[in-house]
Amino acid sequence: MGFKQNLLKKIEADQLASQVIRSLKTTDSGSRFDKSAMRQLLSLGEFPSQKERDLEIYILENDAEKKKLLVLDNGLAIYHTTLTDVCMRKSPTVKEMLSIRNAFKILNDKDVVISKKEKSVKTVQSMVTADLDLTYTAADIEQIEKEGQASLEGRYTDGVIEALSLFAELLDFEKVPRSFHEPHHRIWGRKRKNAADRTVWGPIVAYAMADNRLQLIDTPIDPLDKTQLDHFRQVIDGQAEPAAKGLSVFTHLKELVPECRI
């Protein structure tokens, strides 16, 4: 895959991992964890899976008799043992439970469990993205600029969002906090500390999906400062001029990207 495809895969893996981790935190038991998103994350890594008894097991590493195995359930445990051992511990038969040795293993899996829950999600996320080639040239960045501009001109919302997401990843932009939220907008910004050690956001890119309007604000905005937040809203509402708007936003973002990463 080329640079753009690799970067999109990283973005997708990061988003899926965050989605699963958020769902794990909704209850102590993890009973509502997002199993579908976890399957998608595992699918990105092309990890082989198999159904054994009532278990859905993914093989993360398969180099020796003892494998690295993830069981897709609320615990999201990663084991370093054999497939047979995992099945016995997680879904034992009556015959297996009659063995005292097996009963001890069923009750205590600390000797074979590498990680659980959030740590396991982060392990899979890291494995999915570890081998992605994210080196790029000026031509790669120009391609993202041109595709974003063409999408904006053609009112192709998904294409605009994809290009902005790619630039956000390259420039360490994040989705802005709730105080910046506007209906039917996608908004990203760079978070940093100002001289007073307060968190400010800037540059900020705002895309109004309903009317296909794209703007960039380069003045740092403190979300706790009413005057600065009012200025942000004035720009969004068209009552104040942004630093860049329309097609020029993509050019501005391109120029912020370090020259190359080879």
Structure description:
There is one protein chain. By secondary structure, the protein is of the alpha+beta class. It has 2 domains: 3-129, no CATH class; 138-256, no CATH class. Helices cover 44% and strands 19% of the residues. The chain has 10 helices and 10 strands. The strands form 2 sheets. Strands 1-2-3-4-5 form a 5-stranded antiparallel β-sheet. It has a 5-stranded antiparallel β-sheet with strand order 6-7-8-9-10, sandwiched between helices. The radius of gyration is 24 Å and the shape is elongated. The relative contact order is 0.10. The model has no long low-confidence stretch (mean pLDDT 92).
Summary tags:
single chain, 262 residues, alpha+beta, 2 domains, five-stranded antiparallel β-sheet, 10 helices, 10 strands, elongated
Q: Gist?
A:
This protein is an alpha+beta fold and 262 residues long.
Q: What gap, in angstroms, lies between the N and C termini?
A: 16 Å
Order of SSEs, N→C? HHEEEEHHHEHHHEEEEHEH
Strand arrangement across the biggest beta sheet: 1-2-3-4-5
The general outline is elongated
Structural domain count: 2
Helical/strand content category: alpha+beta
Mean pLDDT: 92
Q: State Rg.
A: 24 Å
Count of helical stretches: 10
Q: What is the tally of beta strands?
A: 10
Poorly predicted runs of 5 or more residues: none
The fraction of residues in strands falls at 15-25%
What profile does the largest beta sheet have? 5 strands, antiparallel
User: Helical amount among residues, as a percent range?
Assistant: 40-55%
